Amino acid sequence: MIIAAAVIILLGLLAFSARWTWWRSAAPGMKVLCYHKIGVPPAGSRLKELWVSAEKFRSQVKYLLDNGYTTLFFSDLKKLYDAGAPLPEKAVLITFDDGYENNHSVAWPILKELGAKGNIFVVYNTIGKTNLWHNPASEAWVNMATLAQLKEMQDSGVMEYGSHTMNHPHLSALKLEDAAWEMAESKRQLEAAFGREMCAFAYPYGDGAYAPAIREKALAAGYTFDFSFRQGKTPWPWDRAGATIDRLFIRGGDNNWDLALQLKCGASRL
Ligand SMILES: [Zn+2]
Q1: Pairwise CA distance, residues 140 & 105, whole Å
Q2: Residue 254 belongs to a domain
Q3: Which of 141, 163, 187, 225 could potentially form a cystine with 200 if both were Cys, beta carbons 3.0 to 4.6 Å apart?
Q4: How far is the CA of 1 from the centre of ligand 1 (A)?
């Protein structure tokens, strides 16, 4: 009986330590949170973990601010990078991929109310449309933010933008010249639309982030920063020639302890 109970407790501890990897040591580097959609997933969504509820998002932003974190824009990071300045220990970037309408209707009011900054990687050709790159049979279409909504968020001083290509393709599946166009043309179009420099780029699906020929085109397009879809923190000062910047993925099922572990160790799960 006692042995059976001990085994059950041990298995429980192992399962707990696999789900929340408290045993990882602290990792230095940039803390870049990666969100997608904020709100309630539509019926039939197969990517529910990419949806974070409004309540959880508010609680996470509040956690950051209550724990002394400063939220940065891409342009703030660029100023530090250009100056060769250290990154404050309690600096964090909140990023959203794709540019969903719920970033405007749900996330923006929360950031504004709490006094935090956010950054969105926008897919230029789907502004005001839907997430057309998904097969609707596998992931429900939802509205993307309109240009007016994006401009309203920029004008509020709460949101900045980076590029996430023209059409959200798998860059490595394209001819290199077409992949280069997706990156350079979206920079041009977004800069014309928003009247600001786009210094940051994120690879759709993370695809191409580790293909030297594609990455070379991203940097040649004029982006200062390119962000991957890999879990973790990237050392600062950043070696731009070396590799892309990793991010900390916030999933729908994460709690604030996940957030704390991610910020400290670069991951909260196995
Ligand atoms: Zn994306």
Answers
A1: 18
A2: yes
A3: 225
A4: 52
If you measure from the C-alpha of residue 113 to the centroid of ligand 1, how many angstroms do you get, rounded to a whole number? 26
- Bridge partners, residue 206, by sequence: none
Q: Which amino acid is at 100?
A: Y
CB atoms within 10 A of CB 9: 10
Q: List, in sequence order, every residue forming a beta bridge with 38; answer none if it has no partner.
A: 52
Q: What is the pTM of this model?
A: 0.95
Here the CATH number for the domain that contains residue 177 is: 3.20.20.370
Burial (CB < 10 A; 0-12, 13-18, 19+), residue 139, is: middle
Using the mean position of ligand 1's atoms as its centre, give its distance from the Cα of residue 82 in Å. 27
Distance 229 CA to ligand 1 centre (A): 9
Report which residue type is found at 255: N
Tens of pLDDT, residue by residue over 14-42, are 888 888 888 788 888 999 999 999 999 88
Whether residue 18 is contained in a domain is answered as no
Q: Count Cβ atoms below 10 Å from residue 202 Cβ, excluding itself.
A: 32
The residue range of the domain holding 208 is 26-265
Residue 16 lies in a domain: no
Q: Provide the domain count of the chain.
A: 1
> Do the Cβ atoms of 205 and 50 come closer than 8 Å?
no
CA distance 218 to 214: 6
- Stretch 105-132: mean pLDDT, rounded? 97
What separation in Å is there between the alpha carbon of 121 and the centre of ligand 1? 8
Using the mean position of ligand 1's atoms as its centre, give its distance from the Cα of residue 97 in Å.
Answer: 5
Residue 122 φ/ψ, nearest 5 degrees:
-95, 135
